[in-house]
Write a structure and sequence with these properties.
alpha+beta, Beta Polymerase, domain 2, Hypothetical protein af1432, 4 domains, seven-stranded mixed sheet, two-stranded antiparallel sheet, about 10% strand, elongated, binds adenosine-5'-triphosphate, binds magnesium ion
């Protein structure tokens, strides 16, 4: 149990207030998971909380939330409240301090609406959340249509919690999600992105993707995925079926992926529908250039969802390079070393593994790369240059300009191939090169 949260609850109780653990922490403890953070709900008003805990942050006081800080951690202390009317489907206009029961009922899902007495450990359940926790059911509190209309972010949260808890969504809630999917348009890309990222990095991400497709939610923020459904592939390479099936299996094969890897797997074949063609001569489907088209699409999509530039760049690069893995065994050593030296390579080799395992299952390129990794592990893939631009300008009288770069690159290629190993050899090589 969280020491700071317990201390805060005790202090509030000593001052004559009610203080409960609330929301996710109660849910996670009952599920036997370690809670991310402990939130406290209390009868004390924000002003009273601040007076008791001088070391607190009142940025959320307007909504009844005070952040109390301890050694390196903090706890959200929120006054029991009812949300005022939601005018824009995003945030309540105002809040009104109220009772524990009303506070439970303003929350989104029954499993998130539980309180726990920190001292007796009793669960205080105004919303039948315990029953749903036992039955592994995700259900909106109250009338689901109204609750999604109030705040459309709950649509994404519903899928997120269904996936992170592995619960089934109750049929009334599910129907309301489908009927309200269009409301997601009111939510900012940043908030959709944050929920989407949590879904994609959770262990049940493939189911999460299915739920986003079936509910109609993905059509609101990533409609390109729908084009993958029914996009046929050559059966000799892809016995698993269409591009969507391939993508969802590939996603399911990732273990604890960083976000960039999950996104690159999701988007690696996003360019296939746009490049689909029938090769009359070979009597087969082709997707010429789908990697480059896909990289461009990935960039546009991730930009639209306001992912950080570094994420966009890396994912787009991984998508653009994913077909090069088919040629690694034919690459010259220098080219292979440069390919493997990319910062994203450790993620890309995982992308390649799940790309293969979700289709034909051929692992020869994957195994080859792992052997090469071992073979090359004794020195840096890109070792220190044997000569530099100044050497060329001073000792070879080459004017500064594009030729310098070309020569240095040629020297590096020879070095990577293992044909040059010191400065003297490099000089001799440049002399030869210049005499040609
Ligand atoms: P996590 O483990 O991801 O933090 P959580 O349940 O703690 O899950 P939070 O987003 O931290 O989720 O919110 C804390 C609690 O506040 C929720 O359990 C829920 O009771 C309530 N809540 C949060 N967002 C909403 C919302 N959009 N509508 C209604 N209630 C909400
Ligand atoms: Mg939380």
């Amino acid at each position: 149990m969280n020491k700071l949260a317990l201390h805060i609850a005790q202090t509030l109780k000593d001052a004559g207030f009610v203080a409960y653990f609330a929301g996710g922490a109660v849910r996670d403890q009952i599920l036997g998971k370690k809670p991310k953070d402990f939130d406290i709900a209390t009868s004390a008003t924000p002003k009273e909380v601040q007076a008791i805990f001088p070391n607190s942050d009142a940025v959320g006081a307007h909504f009844g939330v005070i952040i109390v800080k301890g050694e390196g951690e903090m706890v959200e202390v929120a006054t029991f409240r009812t949300d005022g009317s939601y005018v824009d489907g995003r945030r309540p206009e105002s809040v009104c301090f109220s009772s524990p029961e009303e506070d439970a009922k303003r929350r989104d899902f029954t499993i998130n609406g539980l309180f726990q007495d920190p001292f007796s450990n009793d669960i205080i359940d105004f919303v039948d959340g315990l029953k749903d926790l036992k039955a592994k059911t995700l259900r909106a509190i109250g009338n689901p249509l109204e609750r999604f209309e109030e705040d459309a972010l709950r649509l994404m949260r519903a899928i997120r919690f269904a996936v992170t808890t592995d619960f089934q969504i109750h049929e009334d809630t599910w129907r309301a999600i489908k009927d309200s999917a269009h409301l997601l348009k009111k939510i900012s890309p940043e908030r959709i992105r944050d929920e989407f990222s949590k879904i994609l990095t959770s262990p049940s991400r493939a189911r999460g993707l299915d739920l986003l497709v079936e509910s109609g939610l993905i059509a609101q923020f990533l409609p390109e995925i729908l084009e993958l459904c029914g996009c046929e592939q050559p059966p000799q390479w892809h016995p698993e079926g269409d591009v969507y099936t391939h993508t969802r299996i590939a996603l399911s094969l990732l273990q604890d992926p960083p976000l960039e890897l999950a996104l690159s797997v999701l988007l690696h074949d996003i360019g296939k529908p746009a490049t689909y063609s029938w090769d009359e001569e070979d009597q087969r489907i082709r997707f010429n250039g789908h990697d480059k088209v896909g990289a461009k699409m990935a960039q546009e999509i991730l930009n639209r969802l306001r992912y950080p530039n570094q994420v966009i760049e890396n994912v787009s690069l991984m998508v653009s390079r994913h077909m090069q893995f088919m040629n690694v065994q034919q690459m010259r050593t220098a080219k292979l070393k440069r390919f493997m030296a990319a910062e994203t390579f450790p993620l890309e080799i995982e992308l390649h593994r799940v790309d293969c395992d979700s289709s034909n299952g051929f692992r020869d390129n994957y195994d080859f790369l792992n052997e090469k990794k071992e073979e090359f592990s004794h020195q840096p893939l890109i070792p220190k240059p044997l000569i530099n631009g100044n050497d060329l300008i001073q000792d070879f009288m080459i004017p500064s300009g594009p030729d310098i770069g070309k020569i240095l690159n040629a020297v590096q290629t020879e070095q990577l191939e293992g044909r040059l190993s010191d400065k003297e050899q490099a000089y001799r090589y440049v002399e030869e090169l210049l005499s040609k």
